[in-house]
Amino acid sequence: MRWQIPEAALRAAALVRRAVLWLLLPLMVAACGADHTYAPDDVVQKAAFHSGEPPSITLFTVLRKPYDAGAHSALMIDSTQRVIFDPAGTWGHPRVPVQNDVHYGITEQMRKFYIDYHARKSFDVMEQKVYVTPEVAALALRRVQEYGAVPKSFCANATSNVLRGIPGFESIPGALDPKRVMKAFGKLPGVIEERHIDGDPDDHSGILIVQAQE
């Protein structure tokens, strides 16, 4: 004989689970913690770098091999200056000052360092770029500067929140999964994609040595 759980009981259980999640969410966020590193404004101004390239917005997505599971999301904004918004990220360089999660002074070398840090034996990096107007790039820069520090595990959520408030990127869904943001970004008109693959050790030792020597 097959037992069936009454529908009312199933609904009640779902409501209880939802209530428990809402009660635990503040504790989960607090436990994650956000990095409130905030370099002095004069240091940030001295580090500012203008690439001279057309304005663009680039999405970086770190994919865990072999199944391409989304592991991290970040944005590079090329506007009046080039920055990387690396919400809850772990990369850093002595010559790159940080205010909350915005990294300043992203020269071409620092851009490569950032990619090389994340592309390693167990992870690839998908780079997706869209060229935009100067006005759109300036808005994107303001949005990442105003977003604030992001708790751990909320990188995709922060990235999608920034993008959805920018003209031309409204189709990006609010998401906690970096891969979902990547797929939506890949459908934008004119997107240029490049996948970065590297066999460096997972402990970042290779790129950290290179950065230290540089």
Characterise this structure.
The chain is α+β, with helices and mostly antiparallel strands. The chain has one domain (41-213). It has 7 helices and 7 strands, in the order ααβββββαβαααβα. The protein has helices at 7-32, 41-47, 108-118, 134-147, 155-164, 178-185, 205-213; strands at residues 56-64, 69-78, 82-85, 98-99, 102-104, 123-131, 192-196. A 7-stranded antiparallel beta sheet has the order 4-5-3-2-1-6-7, sandwiched between helices.
Write the layout of secondary structure elements.
Blueprint: H1 7-32, H2 41-47, E1 56-64, E2 69-78, E3 82-85, E4 98-99, E5 102-104, H3 108-118, E6 123-131, H4 134-147, H5 155-164, H6 178-185, E7 192-196, H7 205-213
Antiparallel strand pairs: 1-2, 1-6, 2-3, 3-5, 4-5, 6-7
- What order do the SSEs take from the amino end to the carboxyl end, as H and E? HHEEEEEHEHHHEH
Number of strands: 7
Give the helix tally. Answer: 7
Mean pLDDT: 88
Can you give the helix content as a percent range?
25-40%
Characteristics:
seven-stranded antiparallel sheet, 214 residues, 20% strand
Short description:
By secondary structure, the protein is α+β, with helices and mostly antiparallel strands. It is built from 7 helices and 7 strands, in the order ααβββββαβαααβα.
